[in-house]
Amino acid sequence: MEYEKYENLREKVLGRGLVVAIDGPSGSGKSTIARKVAAALDLGYLDTGAMYRATAWWVDHRGLDVSRPEELAVAMAKMDLKVTAVAHNPRFFVDGFDVGHVIRGEHIDSIVSGVAAVPAVRAVLIALQQRVIREARNSTRGIVVEGRDITTVVAPQAPVRILLTADPEIRLLRRALQDTGHDGAEALERERALVLGRDMKDAKVNEFMQAAPGVHLVDSTSLDLEQTLDAVMSLIDQNTDWDRPGN
Questions:
Q1: Which of 16, 79, 101, 145 has its CA at a distance of 20 to 30 angstroms from the CA of residue 52?
Q2: Domain boundaries, the chain
Q3: Binding site for ATP: which residues?
Q4: CATH for the stretch 17-236
């Protein structure tokens, strides 16, 4: 079994409603790690970045103008966004339409930061994210939530809060291999514009490059995927002492 070595930890957190919050910049590996943690420990999984992408698609599809936040706030009240928060097949529906296949392209890459910076968008999505977390916690299944501001804004009381990061050049290399299948100069320059550019835009709204107090830093620069997962699992184990007062 792929996750056999985590079986004891899975039994430890089973039925406890554990919430694991993971933040990090583009290319840090947070989505891959979050999904693997959720799969190994049988927790739910929520990709909040995809929620912003789905919203960006909806805003673009409707021809809404992000420079008019009052109008966008009124429109946001009518958006119907639903998520399937599972690791093996997360899905996102906007007004009943499955947008999973349309939110990962370059066009959405180019507009999502602008949409995510609108206070009305953030207010609606943060409320929805917190509702999904609350339901997962109350059901006792628990959930792994990843994004940009989970450890500080969305779930600051989560028992396990982690900032996953890596050297910028390593992040560019990983994203180039993920998106194009190779790491040539052209692919790296393409990712440099997309990844670092988006990080700069998003950093104006969220602080996700430095760990806030109480947030554990995992630097995966010199770690492979398995080592990074081991490091995150170790932190989960260390921070889920269910006999400790307050848990």
A1: 16
A2: 17-236
A3: 24-32
A4: 3.40.50.300
